[in-house]
Amino acid sequence: MRFLHTSDWHLGRSFHRVSLLDAQRAFLDHLVATVRSERVDAVLVAGDVYDRAVPPLTAVELFDDALHRLAELGVPTVMISGNHDSARRLGVGAGIMGRAGIHLRTDPASCHQPVLLADAHGEVAVYGLPYLEPALTREEFGAARADHTAVIGAAMDRVRADLAARPAGTRSIALAHAFVTGAAPCDSERDITAGGVEAVPAALFDGVDYVALGHLHGCQTLGERVRYSGSPLAYSFSEEHHRKSMWLVTLDAAGGVEAERVDTPVPRALARLRGRLDDLLGDPALDRHTEAWVEATLTDPFRPHEPMAALAKRFPHILSLAFEPETGDADTSASYARRLRGRSDQQIAEDFVTHVRGAAADAREQAVLREAFDAVRADAVRTEAIGG
User: Fold this and answer.
1) CATH level 3 topology of 2-263
2) In which band, very low, low, confident or very high, does the pLDDT at 339 lie, cut at 50, 70 and 90?
């Protein structure tokens, strides 16, 4: 039996205020085309279908269209809710949709009730564990602690108990939305820390033939049977070097797993550039990034004049600009608070300018600061007089 494992669509999300709707539509077109061309038997979506609990109408329409096309192909889809989704909203109509082969698993209490698929070798039980918020699901599972390890462990105990009651040789798959120990996160994932611990051991999922994970946006293999598909698109510049893909998983008659990556369409490359403005504008080696979405970090000791406009002429798709001046300050061990002791308000303000910009305030800027402090003092005196 062949499965297409994907996750973290985040429909409705933008990239630094640039709409990704067209890119998400292209991905879903690619997914449907892959299902058709690779003769996929079922699609597994391991959570974060939407980017937020109340998605925009355009995202809902995109989701609806994708499900209709998968249903028309007669290919079952098993989908769980992630930490970005509203489980209740995503699960509306789950019973009716299940009759069309779209199986939404959003209720924690039903995680041990599998979707049963079959091929020439028998049944495959597909268990969907939606994102389990520890504080909300501890009581349901009778977990000893309100943390991810306890509630996911209790949920998997239910899964294993159900599987043990099925005919010998029944193959199994579990979908889960979690941060598993040993995996690498990136900047675009929402923190799911609970009780100071968010990562769970992969051993929690022992006993099933394949674990389709969601939540982390990088495609990763934690073991032959435990994998993250990653997000189909990049949602932060920290994903600059990610290869975006889905897993095409083949489950043989004995539960053996073979998996190959299917690349997803890339709307635009990402580039993180760092250096002085003149170097970024003049270095011919950076020509390859002219069509990329660019994040630039300037290291000039002084903030250049209108740097964004200058960079946009060479990199028309620049989206982010940051400043990290090269100060050369040898006294890095001295705390900022200690440097303020015994100084006047004027001196503190001038020191602050030096601290954040890497260069001292000039005479004109000193005069502006002085005028500002004088105005504040005068206003304070007036306020006190009125109050008196």
Assistant:
1) Purple Acid Phosphatase; chain A, domain 2 (3.60.21)
2) low
